[in-house]
Amino acid sequence: MSTADERGTRTARWRRTLVLTAVFVCAACGLVYELALVALGSYLLGNTITQASVVLALMVFAMGIGSLVAKPLTRHAAVGFAVVEIVLAAVGGTSVLVLYAAFAWWSLYQPVLVVLALVIGLLIGAEIPLLMTLLQRIRRQEASSAVADLFAADYVGALLGGLAFPFVLLPWLGLLEGTAVVGAVNAAAGAAVALGLFRADVRRALRVALAAGLAVVMVALGLVATQASAFETTARQRIFRDPVVVAERSPYQEIVVTRSLRGDDTRLFLNGDLQFSSLDEYRYHEALVHPAMAGPHARVLVLGGGDGLASRELLRYKDVRSITLVDLDPAVVRLASTDATLRRLNHDAFADPRLHAVHADAFTWLRANQQQFDVVVADMPDADDVATAKLYSVELYGLVRRALAPGGRVVVQAGSPYFARQAYWTTAASLRTAGLSPTPYHVDVPSFGDWGYFLAAPGQAPPVRMPVGAPSTRFVDSGVLAAAGVFPRDRAPLRLAPSTLLEPRILQRQGDWRGY
């Protein structure tokens, strides 16, 4: 082989490597766009399984259409690829902003999600035939070999994007800024192919147009990244009725605290779901805690309850020796133990030496637990996702039963028997299947509506009553609890199948009810 041939081969290899690098980068960016839409949906609506299924199904479908639509562009593959990537960067890089705005201002979340997923999928699908054409123009090779090279780079790039999203982009940049930065990388990679590697194949006028388009998109994405915090603050305030005084996105959820202008109503929201209102939270927590204390209660386990309000009621019993609180998110406990308003509401519960907080998944912690407790208080988020549905499963209640000392009782907040009737009675079925006999009761909590609980124990179902010598309460007393056990005929008990890890029926039964 002559020196010229060797030099040409090296140049071809170098150019192919750079094209495959562009494939790698663009694949990583494409997966980040998909994950960003799923993540935003889980923050705003919950039910990650549904959000992921909708986004991925629409995108994969659109990718197939995009591959077909891109066929005519293969005659001008370099320019076509650059245009596709610049447009994809603009759409993908601003997708979270557009979708958040659609939710906050226009109540058009689902239609806009569908459009974005289809457009992004269409553009991602258009990449493959264009890139294949560019690779073959550099050096002809067998179709199987070219496909192997292309998809190897594509799949490895997707791996990088999938790992970078939760471990780098979200913690370091955040959802809005992260997608904007990824969009800028995407646009630069696409433009580099046409303006660099295949510059000789692109007419001057087109190069100028591509450079101008790239500049416009880069400036737009830069504005999105720099103004993301201000936009998010404005959009978040649009969602909530009262002024937002605390907003934090932990690795597990979005935490928001609002306070009314008069200062008399403080509310905690997790992923948009109301956890309590200071105006009436005492009704919820008194009804949750005090009936479970009618018996031995020296050792108490609280599952969830990171706001400290259930623990406040428990700590009012002087003969409670220890409380173990298991909550997944340390950010919630940190907020409840440092924010002046929340500390006042929970009576500075986390400063009491009897209360010990553990940051772990309740299911995992119960599996490893060897202790036994007189009372277990399950104050956990509603089951609107598989991750939370397991907290209402037969398997979890079986672990709770194992953790109960002789004579022990468990109380479960179970949603509304009025507005989530099937979810409520599915919880009863799960408790029974786990060997616990539940007693249903419900009270009125104005911020939530009618709210239901189950007090359960092995053997005979325990009565719902106030403990002897209970501390004074603002709402719950013997009369309230007597009425709490009465259900109207149109809300009579339902006999339903239990919810398990493999069949989370509580999700299916809850439907589109979102709580408060």
TrEMBL record:
Residue numbers binding S-methyl-5'-thioadenosine: 253, 327, 361-362
Reaction(s) catalysed by this chain's protein: S-adenosyl 3-(methylsulfanyl)propylamine + putrescine = S-methyl-5'-thioadenosine + spermidine + H(+)
A GO term for molecular function: spermidine synthase activity
Domain PABS: 220-458
Protein name (record): Polyamine aminopropyltransferase
Stated family: Belongs to the spermidine/spermine synthase family.
Pathways involved: Amine and polyamine biosynthesis; spermidine biosynthesis; spermidine from putrescine: step 1/1
Organism: Luteipulveratus flavus
Subunit annotation: Homodimer or homotetramer.
